């Protein structure tokens, strides 16, 4: 080949590469113009917000009720939660039979004495989920018959979800299409059967899902800095109180929310960048401090209202179902806890197992000696045991489908214990991660790093929420593993799984905002989209020099 021909060939290759790069640049530019944030300013309430909320709620309704209802069967926890409403489930009394299908009808029933605990050995549960159950009970009596139908509860949850998506659209930054995309991703995550089926179920998990989303909305509003700051703090306080009240493990939200309340931008400077006087800084922190104290008192009150038998069960499971089965020397562990080593024969049992320790005369000593605080002290002195616990917990998070609980009514024509897989994006994603658990840790680390970068560079509320939601998921993770562990690991970690899945849309939003050329705007650390005075001076000097 001659030199001329080689030159022509190389020039042709470069031309094709430039054409390909040009086409790729046009595609990315088009996508950026269509779905990119464009601006980091919160959009506020516009007509598209309620429309998106309505469509999201409608999508959830269709997903749950068409062609027939799907939900989550009760394994006993529902009885303890709903019996205080004066209703009883219409279902078979054999455990294996009533867990294979959903039984949505709960009829009025008068309990006497301990009769409300007939569905289990723990007594009744106190939960903020009642704020969803009471309207559902009233609507059931108004529309159907006296009592409670969990299908009506599902409709109430869909309505609440639509309202939260409406609020999310109002507090998200960026252009309309970008906000629609992020809200749509949140809807896709929530509509997966491993989460959405809890909307038609007698559990508190649906309240925990909605509470986590409500906290995301409330914190975005708080950090956006729009409106009255006391009102923004009040919304955070109300959302956090509802979320923490859903279940004892949700108390892990307390330190995360306190951190969020104090994580305000430019805490030591005023809007002009000048240092604030000490008096102004004290006034700035007075409101978050008051809210934190109130939330702390509420959390202590929630934990105090839990049945002592509930604490006993969690302590039993933490020792006999989690600690001892994975211990090389169970007798030594019991001796460290101050219990009789002979109870090691109950390793791997629950309170209802044939070899349960409750049948031993030495069990009373265990009840009097072992406490959640002593279990926590054990792991602090044996930190190497936390590694195996973390591995089991991550596997539990990435196995969100509860295969032992059915999803369909008994007369639906489906097989016993058959699971709903109409819309499984999160299930597929988690199943893929389960093959490489290190990717789950990498995803969490990436969310934190990108969120911190966005928060530090632009003061964006989205970055802060992404970081704190990741921290909240790990706080919930350890609260579950240390309080119950292996006994109900897949169901107890489902809320952790939802929060982890919810960080994916926030990670995507944070990455888009971080890569955007726009700048934040508004109070609370936000900046104008126009170039700053310093950058204008630099440009002027460079022009003069040139």
Question: How does this model look, in words?
Answer:
This protein has a three-stranded antiparallel β-sheet with strand order 1-2-3. The longest helix has 33 residues, at 3-35. Helices cover 62% and strands 2% of the residues. It has 546 residues and is an all-alpha fold. The chain crosses the membrane at residues 43-66, 152-172, 178-200, 207-223, 235-264, 426-454, 461-481, 493-514. This is Dolichyl-phosphate-mannose-protein mannosyltransferase. Keywords: Membrane, Transmembrane, Transmembrane helix.
Approximate shape = globular
Question: What would you report as the Rg, rounded to the nearest angstrom?
Answer: 27 Å
Q: What oligomeric state best describes the polypeptide chains here?
A: single chain
Mean pLDDT, as a whole number? 82
Poorly predicted runs of 5 or more residues: 118-122, 266-274, 518-537, 542-546
Portion in helices: 55-70%
Distance between the termini: 47 Å
Strand content: under 5%
Topology as a string of helices (H) and strands (E): HHHEHEHEHHHHHHHHHHHHHHHHHH
- Going across the biggest sheet, name each strand in turn: 1-2-3
Structural class determined from secondary elements = mainly alpha
Counting DSSP E segments of at least 2 residues, the number of strands comes to 3
Organism: Arthrobacter horti
Region (Disordered): 1-21, 520-546
Keywords: Membrane, Transmembrane, Transmembrane helix
Transmembrane segments: 43-66, 152-172, 178-200, 207-223, 235-264, 426-454, 461-481, 493-514
Question: What key attributes describe this structure?
Answer:
546 residues; disordered C terminus; 23 helices; three-stranded antiparallel beta sheet; mainly alpha; 3 strands
